[in-house]
Specification:
mainly alpha; Growth Hormone, Chain: A; 17 helices; 0% strand
Length: 429
Amino acid sequence: MKLNWKRTLLIGFGFLASSLAWSLYNSLVPTMLEERYGLSTMLIGTIMAIDNFFGVVFQPLVGVLSDHTNTRFGKRIPWIAFGLPLSAIAFFFIPRTGTLGMMMAVIILFNFLMSLWRSPVIALMPDVTPRPLRSKANGIINLMGGIGSIIAFFVGGWLAVRDESNNTSFLMGAAVMVVSLIVLLLFVREPVRAAVSIPRPKKRNNTLATMRETMFSLSKPELISLVLMLVAIFFWFAGYNAIETFFTLYVVNVHGLTAGAGTQMLTIFSVAFVFFAFPAGLIGSKIGRKKTILIGLTGLIVCFIPFIFVEQLILLQILLGLGGLFWACININSLPMVVELASDTLVGTFTGYYYFASFSAAILSPIAFGFDRDLTQNYSNLMVYACAAFFFALLAISFVRHGEAATPDAAGGNNPSLPASSQEIRDGE
């Protein structure tokens, strides 16, 4: 029941690589599409949603398949070792394409490769962490992810100002991804129980059926809570992804800044997130994950509403910093709430549920806001859209009744072969 800080930090290098890549991708690719090829906002939003189409389709499937993977290297590491280096190569070539067709081909390849290792790298943490400690561990993992975003926004933004082709920024990102992979392969070893043999579905095309059957094996109250959690996750990521995708264009068009300066502005949000990642996990462990998420959603709404009518950059930067603190309260405690309902052998499957909800939001949200902006010709609507999404997430999470960590004593007696619902019944008996 003691958190292995060193191992958790090392696992966090995988999330660092992923966060860095997506932060650079989401902040610089929209401006390249607009400046190089003059695409409309809705079309840019559609292109930026491609990664999420792959996430919805492949990440849940990969989560299930990694649960069933059994090699001498473990069940998560093989997926990471295959997908991460190929992703770095594709990432390197994104700004070096000379035509829209070539750029789209590389973007599609990059998005597919990223979807092959994101679920496994996130599932590593619950694999090796006792249930009551997962909020704390997720705080460390997300701290590492926040460091990746800081590198992307600050260093990547600085390089983008000096190299408008963005070649140097993407080279830096690819290099950090490769270094992170080396750290994972050299220093992270999956435990024996993380590579247990699980009966495979009778047919390959039964993977979706396995996911569905796993979900409906929960008790009715747990199933309702899981569905509400996934709805809440959908809405808060709808708001977050709209801001992440269009913030650079927002500050360029509304405040007259450069794309590089807008990217650097997001560093404030990421620094605040990193600063509060572990405290947010501690708060979740102390007062409960749900209460912490409710505080985070309320705080985000309060922080982003002033963006609608405030023009002073200093005040906007302060609000971005506060928003990063509240986003940590949400993001750190959400995945542990979902996987709390999973048995220890199905963590990858429930991680897939989490990413199905978040990537579904990331598919629809950029397209929806892009349509709104093209219709109104007003980037200021971005914050109205985001705050509305955060409000609907607040409503959904308010009715969740499961997903809190068990007490250490109860968790210590958990039978990893039982699903959470059966475990609760046995503990009650």
